[in-house]
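User: Can you recover a sequence for this backbone? Please restate the input before giving your answer.

Assistant: Of course. Working from this structure:
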């Protein structure tokens, strides 16, 4: 696309954008003078939909008015509340409803899934992660190795970029599996890398893993609501993601979980159990022996926290009105414009390390700063440009299509340009 570097052009793109009205559905933080921040950290914490307060208030009112009877008499009865989220969440990640449930938090869900899908033997026990995986994933797999009695240093295999490169190559993962596949039990890979913003080919990863007798799991913390991973079609065994980033459900909110349909009716899979993954028809007959539910619901343990789920429902209802196809189409254009403007600066002090191919990224661009100087990020913050810094040398910027505008992008890059020229 032939972009132009001017405020007028950015405003023209906004006027032509069929999704521009969505910005009005969100609370945009403001400074003390009432000026809106330029908010580019939806990859860390999404903004609050204006509808969220009403969704939560409905549950507070029903709690006040019905007490325990709200489980059945509330406007949105609490007993099946998690089911109200399933279809919309499944559409966002490209799954069937039987494959998805909302529960717990991300790392908790990864551990619960590894109870089922990490079944090491004495000779086939190693786990592959990307070398720059989010720290929580690394800690989780190391503790799983330790728990099963293996050396976590020896048992952890890192898929690394090549010398002098920042991005991962799928052929290097293939080489790891060709060499050590007989020893590898599990691949646990971030679908969108938190640091570089690289969107990996999860279908190819699943094919490579399964060809070597490995289970394959995906952490979609930076993917859900950002890209369309088509989880069912990909064939991965399991996935999990948080909902407070691109899914705008509030700080520390619940996680989504995916288990592929091929495992839906396998009651022999090892798992932890609780009353909420027991057959819902006999759940309250307390003297029944455990009867696990089919599908992703069979990994639940406890009854759902309604107030957190109400915030998720507010956001998912908005996603359902728009659809991921329209959001990803705008995202491609918005991030492409952002990339174009940064390239126009022409500074040797920064470079984008996120893939240039729109099919290999979501909306995040990771801007690497020469000499790892955090002061540039701090100066952006002082100008009410909200990005985030990731050690050792990256400013992560995410123009989110639900609420960021082309004008936001233009203004942000103009501020960045001026800061670099003053340096």
């Amino acid at each position: 696309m032939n972009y132009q570097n001017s405020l007028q052009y950015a405003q023209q793109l906004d006027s032509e954008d069929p999704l521009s009205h969505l910005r009005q559905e969100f609370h945009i933080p403001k400074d003390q003078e009432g000026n809106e921040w330029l908010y580019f950290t939806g990859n860390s914490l999404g903004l609050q939909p204006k509808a969220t307060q009403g969704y939560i208030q409905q549950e507070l009112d029903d709690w006040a008015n019905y007490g325990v009877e709200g489980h059945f008499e509330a406007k949105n009865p609490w007993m099946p509340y998690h089911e109200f989220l399933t279809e919309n969440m499944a559409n966002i990640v490209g799954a069937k409803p039987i494959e998805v449930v909302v529960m717990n938090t991300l790392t908790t869900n990864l551990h619960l899934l590894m109870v089922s899908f990490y079944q090491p033997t004495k000779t086939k026990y190693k786990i592959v992660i990307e070398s720059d995986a989010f720290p929580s994933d690394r800690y989780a797999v190391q503790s799983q190795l330790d728990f099963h009695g293996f050396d976590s240093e020896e048992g952890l295999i890192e898929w690394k970029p090549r010398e002098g490169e920042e991005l991962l190559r799928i052929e290097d993962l293939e080489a790891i599996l060709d060499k050590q596949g007989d020893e590898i039990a599990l691949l646990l890979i971030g679908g969108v890398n938190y640091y570089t913003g690289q969107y990996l080919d999860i279908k190819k990863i699943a094919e490579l893993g399964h060809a070597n007798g490995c289970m394959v799991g995906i952490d979609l913390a930076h993917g859900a609501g950002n890209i369309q991973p088509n989880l069912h079609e990909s064939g991965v065994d399991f996935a999990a993601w948080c909902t407070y980033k691109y899914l705008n459900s509030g700080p520390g909110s619940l996680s989504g979980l995916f288990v592929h349909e091929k495992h839906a009716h396998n009651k022999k899979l090892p798992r932890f159990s609780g009353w909420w993954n027991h057959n819902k028809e006999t759940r309250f007959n307390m003297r029944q022996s455990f009867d696990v539910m089919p599908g992703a619901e069979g990994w639940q343990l406890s009854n759902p926290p309604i107030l957190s789920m109400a915030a998720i429902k507010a956001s998912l209802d908005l996603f359902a009105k728009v659809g991921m196809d329209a959001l990803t189409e705008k995202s491609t254009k918005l991030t492409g414009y952002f990339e174009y403007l940064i390239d126009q600066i022409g500074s040797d002090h920064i470079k984008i390390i996120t893939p240039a191919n729109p099919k290999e990224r979501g909306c995040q661009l990771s801007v690497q700063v020469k000499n790892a100087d955090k002061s540039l990020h701090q100066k952006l913050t002082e100008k009410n440009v909200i990005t985030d810094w990731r050690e050792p040398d990256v400013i992560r910027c995410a123009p989110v299509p639900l609420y960021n505008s082309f004008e936001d992008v233009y203004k942000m890059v103009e501020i960045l340009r001026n800061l670099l020229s003053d340096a």
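That completes the design. The first strand starts at residue 38 and ends at 39.
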